[in-house]
Structure prediction request, 761 residues.
Amino acid sequence: MGFLDAVAKFRSGLARTRDSLMARVQQLAATHTRIDDETLEQLEEILLGADVGPATTTEILRRLKERARTEGFDSSDRLSELLKDEVARLLHVDGEPAPLPILPTSQRPLVIMVVGVNGVGKTTTIGKLAWQYRQAGKRVVIGAADTFRAAAKEQLDIWAQRAGAEIAGQSQSADPASVAFEALNTGVAHDADVVIVDTAGRLHTKLNLMEELKKIRRVMDKRLPGAPHEVLLVLDATTGQNGLQQVRMFTDAVQVTGLVLTKLDGTAKGGIVIAVSHDLGIPVRFIGVGEAIDDLQPFDRRAFIDALFDQSPSGGSSE
Amino acid sequence: MFESLSQKLELAFKKLRGQGRITPQNVEESLREVRRALLEADVNYRVAKQFIDSVQVRAVGQEVLSSVTPGQQIIKIIFDEMVQLLGNTRADIATASNPPTVILVAGLQGSGKTTFSAKLALHLKSKGRLPLLVAADVHRPAAIDQLETLGQQIEIPVYADRGAGAVKIAGDAVAFARKNIRDTIIVDTAGRLHVDEEMMREVEAVKAVLAPHEILFVVDSMTGQDAVTTAKAFHDRLNYDGIVLTKLDGDSRGGAALSIRAVVEKPIKFVGIGEKLDALEPFYPDRIASRILGMGDIVTLVEKAHQQIDVEKATRLEEKLRKSQFTFDDFLDQLREIRKMGPLSQIASMIPGLNRLPANAELDERGLVRVEAIIQSMTREERQRPAMINGSRRRRIALGSGTTVKDVSRLLKQFEEMQRMMKRLSKGNVRRTMQQMRFPTN
Ligand SMILES: Nc1nc2c(ncn2[C@@H]2O[C@H](COP(=O)(O)OP(=O)(O)OP(=O)(O)O)[C@@H](O)[C@H]2O)c(=O)[nH]1
Ligand SMILES: Nc1nc2c(ncn2[C@@H]2O[C@H](COP(=O)(O)OP(=O)(O)OP(=O)(O)O)[C@@H](O)[C@H]2O)c(=O)[nH]1
Ligand SMILES: [Mg+2]
Ligand SMILES: [Mg+2]
Prediction:
């Protein structure tokens, strides 16, 4: 599947579910010439329903009200423009969307650690990511540092094979830190461009497991100073307000550098990343839009917001 | 962040004092706080609105009682209403009169179906049943390996057929169970999105060939607003019989439980509280309700409201405390009351300050059982006057409770410390402090 097909799939996935959000906004604007309480209430429901959360929703509406008051709005287009703009302001991004984390020439191999709570899509994302690097002609080594979950290794083996990446950690060690260490060894020995380390899903409230994660990180830094260069936290788009706490705690433990928002091909809207981005300033790097190997896309803020608010699949642009 | 709701409510309700009756006007502010708490807890916004409306209807017109604060009075109404909506009757899973009983497990990707299937098999095995796990997920990489590994861990056979489709596997598994005298079949299916028409048809076909006695829908307790959509869509397609709420061992507030109950009238039958295969529990609506309301001390508050009925007992306890006559009997009473509230790890996670403790470090459930056993092995006199428990008495108590002398001594020491602490307590704070204290466990 080509990139454009993937974009179309993403859009249609979002558009199908986005509840004709803009249609509702436009309807609102058509029947109201100023933002009255009723309009605000309906906008509030739209944002709350997308998991943006009560605090961030209040903040967006406060800003919208303020701007509508000072700048005024005369058409429905203008109202939706203001709304999108306010959401965009909260949704920080690191420059332009990059197809892949940039490979700095000074760091070879680039080491990526993938973390998150249980079942969000870490292992699948690693398969997809490895495949993208392989498509770009990069040599990829994967470390299977989830030594806990039943058949986690077998699952990752299959993904590595599909992607054409090498799996390190044949020793079947039960200690995730030593598996990670071994993965870096292999990466260096085999002259890999990228090493991606999978970790077991863990709830951010389990202190002992978070300590284990810190240790994995430390050991990698010891083997290759500066590693891991990227720590990706995977968030499930269906996640509600707990997502904020997840990002906080994982960031405290292992300094998360970017988010991956998975399962956006369902009806969940993933609005929690707006709150996360606003509160913690951590950018979304990728989105997952399916279970196939090519169902991972770079996060594009404009496309995300357009898709969030637009009713027509052709609306919005991610080029 | 969480514990502030009760404070806010208390503040908002202060005004109510001396007003005689609850009116729509004087509760409005407080109900706004409640609504916000519900939204923070991931209760669907529509459900939250309905819920608040119904609370208001029940509250308005009530007399403001003098025995409790108006805040406590409303909290009790909210709490009761929520427990009722969550379903206050325990629902078991079906058993076929003509075995095998067939159980189908379905849900979104990564919600915890495979883990739950194994947990349920273990649970049924412990009750003397002969389960068979069926690996009908032919989509996820290594899904069959995962179930086979789990099956080995709990010594329960797994039916798999690599290369076959889900429908054929399901059909063959029933015949296999009959032949091999397995009385219960638990069919694990692939995760799927409710908008994936092809996959939804697959699970319908699996259902058709199985004719299950029980279909369980597995949901992640961290789910946000989308819970209503998916729960309803799966219900429309499968008409499932019950819900399983997973990953409740975290700090998600679990509002999805309320949302789902509001859109489908099916009971929540189990909750998953860990990755280990024995981390399965029946559903307790009161625990989830206090969790959704997000107040570590909500149970305390509600109990306080109830407690007014038993003022005498409380006064007596306070009296004792001040005179430092707090005995092991009182301690046992308290212990039991606390344990009624739920597993300690969960309670701890809800108590501000305690929720950062390493999981199970200080609050190991078995430790509590041991404490109870030790106290029960004391004579009446010993319980009243722990000071008399000398070396030989300690040996006897250890023997009687199946613990060691060291355990007994440690408990005595901790109890002494507790007594000292109690003495320092000011009147009125007794119960709260009891619950915030570290419990002397192993
Ligand atoms: N629809 C959809 N499913 C996804 C996506 N990403 C992952 N999944 C599915 O989600 C489920 C869990 O994915 P995993 O990759 O095993 O998740 P994990 O985070 O590694 O899980 P643990 O290691 O058990 O914590 C699998 O069934 C995946 O196929 C996505 O973007 N869309
Ligand atoms: N902490 C915690 N983790 C759980 C619980 N139940 C399941 N998990 C974890 O959640 C992850 C996903 O569980 P699975 O049982 O593989 O989920 P699934 O629904 O079968 O996933 P798919 O088959 O990919 O759709 C695994 O890492 C499990 O260990 C629970 O109650 N608590
Ligand atoms: Mg994994
Ligand atoms: Mg599964």
Q: What stands out?
A: Chain A is about 50% helix and 15% strand.
